[in-house]
Specification:
Largest sheet: 2 strands, parallel
Radius of gyration: 23 Å
Strand order of the largest sheet: 1-2
Number of strands: 4
Strand content: under 5%
Shape: globular
Number of helices: 20
């Protein structure tokens, strides 16, 4: 059955066609100005504050947040889910710009590091660290990319009746579109597209939030209606409260989605390319405002999910019925259901472009980070006469390989959007956050501490995946024991596992560095001498 009337579907298709034309045109335009690998990877290290801030924000937020997280946490925590968006703005955007932005730009520029693995290799004088971190980046960026594709397919499934394989077709088309403009223009194309897409996101989120609340007779009436609805534990008066029904696990979500940006290669690489220190200061303000509107708006909107959706098939209130799988609601369908009820049909085209913009900007950064990491950090050191031309060809080939693998994973709908993202961020930031952060500030940070963080971050993620997500019968006893513990922090949640891995990384690096040998004094002094330069 077709979900939208004909006129709305035609309008949506026309808007999409215009959007795609603009994206490809930007790719063609920037291709003429991308002359070498430095241009392709970092835009010549000459990107201004507005482009950097918007690129940071649009890489940060995608369909994962708007479709997956807003639905799951809005359902579970009500309007207190808005704290996640506030945390994203303050901890995930404002603080890293001021805390690590300047040091990252100066040190990576001085060392000639183009990627995070390249930074590890030169800062700690270890080619093995460089190789290991490059493999971690490639492997664990894939589930994040797959989660973005899942969010897109959910949205298009709401708008059009695409049949059984429609979601897979959309995933493939989006992969091709993101591959085209990234392959053509590299970082410059990504940054310009991110700015254009960011404008769409700001306008779209503001519109959607306003209509979501207005549909329920304004903010006060909507909150009162929420407080009447029981939460998952059967309590009323919590979903409209300031800290919600489960503040401790809400904190885990804030930490994963906010602190994680400090150690994600696709995020910190924005600081490698920024033009100068003044651009960092301006970029901090712009990116924080962007995060407040986009992330804060998404989670705030998600807080009203229960006013639009129900798990009761006999509910006659006009709410959208959400099916369950293994006794749990399908969270990824909730936001599309809310939007279908809250928005006029003629605004669906704006919604589609909004989520598409958020997702393609994230996808472009992910595929660019992955392909450049493999080429620069794994292939280049092992191939003789690997000049700029050959590197450009290799990066474009790896873009295709990365996208193909991500599409295959995304076509399997067994894993939720939030689960895929949680494991990706948990492994990457759990491995890199401590080494990257202390590498910028602590001269005594050691190679052994880096290796320890790599093993703990990836190890915690893999152990959690095998114990709790794969459903392996041999581990059923362990799963039940964790449930029986009744721990206030939900250890079954991949979100809390990811947040735990990040905290471990921050704690373990200075501890291990205190009794292990730092790199050679010349290596350390060379790295830190860059910080004296304006």
């Amino acid at each position: 059955m077709e979900i939208l009337p004909m006129d709305s579907r035609v309008a949506t298709i026309l808007i999409l066609a215009l959007y795609v034309l603009i994206m490809v045109s930007i790719g063609v335009y920037t291709a003429r100005r991308t002359k070498n690998t430095n241009d392709f990877i970092l835009g010549g290290r000459n990107v201004g504050s507005w482009l950097t801030a918007f690129s940071y924000g649009t890489t940060y937020f995608s369909a994962v947040v708007f479709i997956g997280y807003a639905g799951q946490f809005g359902w579970g925590y009500g309007i207190s889910a808005s704290w996640v968006g506030i945390g994203n703005a303050i901890i995930g955007s404002l603080i890293p710009f001021f805390l690590i932005g300047r040091r990252t730009r100066l040190m990576t520029n001085h060392l000639g590091a183009k990627t995070m693995p390249d930074y590890f290799g030169k800062r700690f004088d270890s080619s093995k660290l460089k190789t290991a971190s490059a493999l971690i980046v490639f492997i664990f960026l894939i589930p994040y990319t797959a989660s973005v594709y899942n969010g897109l397919s959910r949205l298009f499934g709401m708008v059009f009746d695409l049949g059984k394989n429609g979601g897979t077709i959309i995933i493939i088309l989006m992969a091709l579109l993101s591959a085209v403009y990234v392959t053509l223009g590299g970082y410059k194309a990504t940054a310009l597209n991110d700015f254009f897409q960011g404008i769409i996101m700001l306008i779209g989120i503001a519109t959607v939030v306003a209509l979501t609340v207005q549909k329920k007779d304004g903010f006060s009436a909507a909150v009162d209606a929420l407080n009447v609805i029981p939460d998952d534990k059967g309590n009323t008066g919590t979903l409209g409260s300031l800290f919600g029904p489960d503040p401790l696990n809400l904190l885990g979500v804030v930490l994963l989605t906010s602190l994680g940006t400090w150690g994600l290669p696709q995020m910190v690489q924005k600081f490698y390319a920024i033009k100068n220190e003044d651009a960092i200061k301006k970029g901090a303000v712009i990116s924080t405002f962007f995060a407040l509107v986009v992330a804060g708006g998404s989670y705030f909107m998600g807080g009203f999910i229960r006013l639009y959706c129900t798990l009761d098939p006999d509910d006659n209130s006009g709410k959208a019925f959400i099916e369950t799988v293994n006794g749990k609601p399908v969270f990824d369908t909730m936001v599309p259901a809310l939007l279908h009820q809250a928005l006029p049909n003629l605004l669906i085209g704006l919604l589609v472009v909004l989520v598409l913009s958020a997702s393609l900007s994230t996808l472009s950064s992910l595929v660019l980070t992955s392909s450049t990491t493999l080429t620069n950090d794994l292939i280049k050191p092992r191939v003789k006469d690997f000049d700029d031309k050959k590197q450009m060809v290799a990066m474009r080939i790896f873009i295709a390989v990365f996208l193909v693998i991500s599409v295959i994973i995304a076509s399997n709908k067994n894993a939720s959007i939030s689960t895929l993202m949680s494991y990706s961020w948990g492994a990457l930031s759990g491995a890199f956050l401590g080494p990257f952060l202390y590498g910028l500030f602590l001269k005594k940070a050691s190679k052994a501490a880096c290796w320890t963080s790599f093993f703990t971050g990836v190890g915690i993620t893999l152990i959690h995946m095998f114990l709790f997500s794969f459903g392996i019968e041999a581990f059923s006893g362990i799963r039940q024991s964790v449930i029986d513990l009744g721990c206030p922090l939900n250890l079954l949640s991949p979100i809390n596992a990811g947040a735990f891995a990040m905290i471990v990384s921050i704690i373990i690096v200075p501890i291990v560095s205190s009794f292990t040998k730092a790199p050679d004094d010349k290596v350390v002094e060379n790295a830190f001498s860059s910080l004296n330069t304006k």
